[in-house]
Design a protein that fits this description.
The chain has 10 helices and 10 strands. By secondary structure, it is α/β, with parallel strands linked by helices. It has a single domain, classed as Thymidylate synthase/dCMP hydroxymethylase domain (Thymidylate Synthase, Chain A, 2-Layer Sandwich), CATH 3.30.572. Strands 1, 2, 3, 5, 6, 7, 8 and 9 form an 8-stranded mixed sheet that branches.
């Protein structure tokens, strides 16, 4: 299994390198749980300046509305009501929210702490026989060094073409929120996926993304990125009323 490290100043730069690595170096292996095959590597993706522009990749499934809704799911818990209905066992937000006050307190107590970890994996549920929805995100660690908050995430499994960008973007938004709470600047973001993969049905999509990166001539070319601040940020904010209406309909629909 290939072990790959990629880095970039911005999120799109690192993410596009990750896509190229998966396309070029991924090994084909069976994926019997889903009756398919996958292309797979183990990946560590380092982003030096997570808020650097351009911050948005065009190479992910969805647009500004989908990205804003996912941000709200992760940071605000807008779909946590599905747990109470018995439709879902958990959300990432539901497993994070009770740990955040302790984490903030720990980093205020000792900014150099190595204990500021949020555990997403809940072993009683995630290892239960017959469980088909164990958490992909396992844990998040925050480290304050030289006045900056650094974030380290670990995924046991991460869909490189359909999940990674939105995962990383939302986690960076959470990192920014915590850095503001602590009154420290933003540090690096590191995204580790033990299985960074692409399912067989998406092999052509991955290949297409790689071709677009190659033809753009730059990992952050205008053809494959958007500015976030003053561009997508405004579009995402404008989408909030529509998302709120959609969420309310889901709640009312039972």
């Amino acid at each position: 299994m290939q072990e790959v490290f990629v880095s970039g100043v911005s999120l799109p730069e690192a993410y596009h390198r990750a896509l190229l690595a998966l396309n070029e170096r991924g090994l084909i292996s069976p994926c019997p749980d889903y009756d398919t095959r996958q292309k797979e590597i183990s990946l560590t993706m380092s982003v030096e300046e997570p808020l650097a522009e351009p911050m948005i990749s065009r190479l992910f499934i969805g647009g500004y509305r989908e990205l804003e809704q996912y941000r709200q799911e992760m940071l605000e818990g807008v779909l946590d009501f599905e747990i109470e209905r018995g439709n879902w066992a958990y959300t990432y937000h539901s497993r994070m929210k009770e740990q955040l006050p302790w984490l903030l307190g720990e980093l205020r107590r000792n900014p150099y702490s190595r204990r500021a970890v949020i555990d997403i994996r809940e072993w009683r549920h995630d290892t239960e026989e017959g469980n088909d929805s164990p958490a992909c995100l396992q844990h998040i660690q925050y480290l304050v060094r030289e006045g900056a908050l650094h974030c380290k995430t670990l995924f046991r499994s991460n869909d490189g073409v359909k999940a990674t960008f939105m995962n990383a973007f939302a986690l960076i938004m959470l990192q920014e929120r915590i850095s503001r709470e602590l009154g420290v600047k933003m540090g690096s973001y590191t995204h580790r996926a033990n299985s960074f993969h692409c399912y067989e049905r998406d092999f052509d999509l991955l290949s297409g993304y790689a071709s677009r990166i190659a033809s753009a001539g730059s990992l952050c070319a205008d053809e494959i990125t958007y500015e976030y601040d003053g561009d997508w940020k405004e579009l995402m904010e404008e989408s909030r009323p529509g998302i709120a209406e959609q969420i309310e309909r889901l709640k009312q629909g039972g």
